[in-house]
Each structure stands twice: as structure tokens, then as C-alpha cells.
Amino acid sequence: MTDFLSNEQLQKLVPLFLDWNTKLNLSAIRDEASVREKHVQDSLLLGDFLNLGDQRLRVLDLGTGGGFPSLPLACVYPNLRFTAVDSVGKKLKAVQSMADELEVKLRTQHGRIEELGQDAQYREQFDLVLARALAPWPVLLEYALPFVRVGGRFVAYQGPGVREDLENFTGLEAKLGGKIVKVHETSLGDSERVFVVIKKVAQTSRKYPRANGVPRKQPLQ
After folding, report:
1. Is the CB of residue 111 less than 8 Å from the CB of residue 88?
2. Whole-number mean pLDDT of the chain?
3. Every domain of the chain and the residues it spans
4. CA distance 71 to 61
């Protein structure tokens, strides 16, 4: 786990986020200690099992919300190039402002995931796609895998409930060109965290993601 005291940008991020949170309600978590643990440290758990330090990867943060996990990761891994996507423009303005003030490599993109996933500028263009507390498992797979290049990876930040999802939706990732290569289990404070790593082994069919709203209304089985 990255030491906050050794990274000036991480130290700046927490008060920056707290200030923006009073203006825009980016998160229900409002005290410094909880933001540090439940948002920042949680985001950085990725580095405990993926080697990110010496690679120049294009990284997509789907449904970034208040900028997690991309803002903390951008502070620690300046070699990575982040794009943060969300459907709420106000949140993205805050995220871009924080990124600019912290001087990290992060750009924001406003839009619906279903539409961006069919856009040639984004479809299968990313080495690493991340999503944290975004959608139910079958919806999440349909959202994320179309953005991953063949040979790239999707990492889902999950809680312990994903174990049941993995049993109930066995093989669904293969329908979208993915293969589960690792399930990393850890804890943070009193919370269990489970990271599912899916490698993109084949192109995703052009019919995915389906039109706006369809993945949630009619989840894949």
C-alpha cells in the first residue's frame, strides 16, 4: 500500500476532494479519514497485485463519479494515461479540475457508456479498464469489455458478493471476448475487497454494448 506521506499529490487530493464534495455532493463519505480509506486507499489496492510501475498503459475509468479509482492511481503512477468517463457532467468538471491542480495525466469524457462503447475512438482502445461500484455483474461485463483491446485487461473492484455472481454467471465473460485470469481477495479496514481480472482474448461482437438502458433492463445471462 502506498504511503500517503511519501506522495505529495495524494496528500493534496484528500482536502481537494473534500472541498469539491461540499459543493457537488460527489460522495456520501465526508470525513477525511473515511475518504482516505474508503476512496483513496481502496483505489490504490490495484497496485498490490498488478505491476503498473513500468508500463505506459492507456487506462479507462468507467463511471468515475468523484474520480475514483483514477485520481489516486494517476498520482502514484505518472506513466499511465487515464481517461475518466461518467454520464454526469458536473462530476467530471470537478474531476478534471482536481486532475489539473494535481498535475496528473487524466482527461475526462462525458457520455453514456453504451454509446462510447460503440465509438471507434474508444472501442477496444484501452490496455486496462477499471470499474468500481458501477453496475450488477452481467451489466458490468457488457459495459466494460467492449472498451478493452485484445490482450488488455478489465479489473472489476468488487465486494464479497461477486463470488456468487461468478457462480451464477459462469462463462458470461467469454460471450464478450473475455477470460477470467485472476480473482484477488483482500481486505481494507473492516471491508472485504475482491478484484476480478479479466483478460480480453477475442474481439467483442459489435452487437455489444446494446442501446442505452438495455443492458440494465435486459441483463445478459
Report:
1. no
2. 95
3. 4-217
4. 10
